[in-house]
Every structure is written in C-alpha cells, then in structure tokens.
C-alpha cells in the first residue's frame, strides 16, 4: 500500500515536471506569438477594417457569405492594415496605431490574431499617413506600400529581430511626379511578379516588377488611365484596388459616366479588369455604384470576386458586392461587418490567401 502511494506520488510529480517542461518549451519557441506556428492550409476571405470606435477588427469567411469575427484583442488604430501570408500561412498585418503611436505589426491566422503587437523599429510614428499594402517576399522580408505626405512610398520590412523598415525601394522611373496621392497605394504579388499602383490627380499609375535576390526590380511605369480608356466614362477616381488569383491580376476602379442630356445626377460605375502580366488589361465586368473613398477586392477566379467600397460623404455601412462570372449580388453588410459597423469613408483591406 505504501509502495503504491509512493508510485502514485512519483507519477504525479513526473507529469507535473513534463507539463512544466512543455510550457517552457512552448514559450521559448514562439515568443511573443504563440498561435499555431505551422500556419493553416485553408484560404478564406479575411477582412480588416476600422470600426466606429476606431478599433481594428478582423472578420473571415469560407464562402464570402457567412462571416465570423476573428479572435484577438482589438487595437486602437488610425488606419487599417495591409495583410499577406508567408510561405507557411502565417498572416502578417502592418498598421499605424492611433494618434502619435508607432507603426505596429500583428501576426496570426485567418481566425485568430496575436494580442500583443510588435513595434516596427523606432516606431516611425510620422511615417505612414494611410492604410498599408503589404506583400511577402521571402523568409521574414516583406514589401510595404503606404501614403507618405501624399507620396507613394515602398519599403522593405524585416520581421526578424530587430524588426524594422530596412530600405526604401519606391519605383521612380517612367511615371509622373509622385505627389497629390489619393488614398493608399495598392501592392500585389503573384509568383514573384509585383504591381504597385497609386491614384493621383485622376490618373492611375502602375509599375510592374520582379523579385530578384530578395529585392524588387522595377520596370518603367505607365498610366493605366491612358492605356485603358472607356468610351462614355471618365478616368478612374476616388479609390482603386489590386488583387490576384493563381493565373491573373485584377484591378478595380470607379469611373464617372459622362452626363446624358438633361441629367442632373452624377452616376458612377465600378469596373474590374484582368491581366496576366500587369501591362495589358481587359475589362471583365462593370456595374453602377457610388464615388468611393476606399475600396478593396479579392478574387478566387473570374467567377468569384468580392469588392467592398465606402464613400466619404455617406455615413453607415460600405457597399459589399459579389460577382459570380455573370451576375452581381449585393452582400448583407450585417453579415460582413457583424456587430461593429465600419467607420464610413475609412480604408480597409479584403484579402484572400493562395
């Protein structure tokens, strides 16, 4: 009996010791981010936006119709983050914290985000004046694009220690003066082919590039507005967005229709174009909408596209649309945003991993 008691005590002690060692091992292998380090194989839609209390919210959806809130403490922010994933499916979000607070980084999965953001280097508190667009390059290296005093800026961010903006790599050749920027620059990466674009003075400017040796090598830029005109419509205005699937790039823009005789009200239309190289674009579809302040797009293919846009003058929910290859559907904003309405006119990011 005594021997059995001793054995039970010994076993209990052994399990306690094992548990302590496991906890120590876990804390050592993944500080400060302990969400599944192996990523995930799912590729749902992920939506990040700023609510009416200026809190950052993450939502996700498998099918684009039913949306759920992601776990994680809301962060008080000025601008919504850009989102991308690394090679194993760990999500990264870079955003400007509220007021004079610094640029910060969150890691997570589509449905669960770390509660403790990292600060980017010295914080760069006056660096970012918009939401960000980010793409993964390799390892812990990322490209980040943002509005810096009404100029498009692209930098390399290193998420290893000490994590910081390492070098500016903004393309400068072949485009007009890089100022009077509207909204944030867009940035997308498909198999090492990159596009960065920005809207200024009703001119949408695009630059393509390739990742070589961990850095972008840019080609001469061009004016999308001049290369892709639409008869009966003006140039892109308000906001634009880039996306990709496995085969092609997408760009979403809004154009004002030329007024008809006697017409008193302006009419705006959302156009979506596709390209396999980022240079030659073909119109996929269009529909009537409103003049946007911000816009984001995600596509699983030409038959499954979601676009969300908001207006600077209309309070309340944004417009959420889905295109199935033939028809447009208006999504239920109460499902997309849940219990926390979007801060109307503010930027946001809709993302789809591949």
Automatic annotation (TrEMBL):
UniProt-listed PROSITE patterns: PROKAR_LIPOPROTEIN
Name of the featured protein: Lipoprotein
């Amino acid at each position: 009996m005594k021997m059995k008691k001793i054995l039970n005590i010994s076993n209990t002690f052994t399990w306690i010791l094992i548990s302590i060692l496991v906890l120590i091992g876990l804390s050592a292998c993944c500080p400060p981010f302990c969400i599944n380090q192996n990523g995930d194989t799912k590729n749902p839609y992920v939506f990040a936006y700023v609510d009416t209390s200026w809190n950052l919210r993450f939502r996700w959806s498998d099918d684009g119709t039913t949306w759920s809130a992601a776990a994680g403490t809301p962060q008080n922010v000025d601008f919504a983050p850009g989102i991308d994933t690394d090679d194993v499916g760990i999500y990264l979000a870079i955003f400007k914290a509220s007021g004079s607070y610094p640029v910060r980084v969150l890691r997570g999965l589509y449905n669960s985000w770390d509660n403790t953001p990292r600060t980017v280097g010295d914080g760069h508190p006056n660096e970012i004046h918009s939401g960000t667009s980010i793409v993964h390059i390799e390892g812990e290296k990322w490209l980040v694009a943002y509005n810096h005093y009404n100029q498009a800026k692209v930098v390399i961010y290193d998420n290893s220690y000490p994590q910081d903006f390492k070098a500016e790599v903004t393309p400068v050749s072949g485009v007009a003066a890089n100022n009077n920027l509207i909204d944030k620059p867009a940035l997308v990466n498909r198999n090492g082919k990159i596009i960065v674009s920005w809207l200024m003075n009703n001119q949408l400017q695009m630059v393509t590039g390739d990742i070589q040796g961990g850095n972008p090598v840019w080609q001469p830029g061009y004016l999308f507005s001049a290369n892709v005109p639409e008869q009966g419509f003006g140039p892109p205005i308000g906001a634009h967005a880039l996306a990709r699937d496995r085969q092609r790039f997408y760009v979403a823009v809004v154009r004002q229709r030329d007024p008809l005789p006697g017409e008193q009200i302006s009419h705006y239309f959302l156009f979506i174009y596709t390209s396999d190289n980022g240079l030659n674009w073909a119109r996929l579809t269009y529909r009537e909408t409103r003049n946007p302040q911000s816009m984001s797009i995600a596509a699983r293919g030409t038959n499954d596209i979601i676009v969300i846009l908001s207006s600077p003058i209309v309070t309340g929910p944004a417009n959420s649309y889905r295109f199935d290859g033939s028809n447009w559907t208006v999504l239920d904003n109460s499902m997309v945003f849940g219990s926390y309405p979007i801060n109307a006119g503010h930027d946001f990011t809709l993302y789809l991993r591949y």
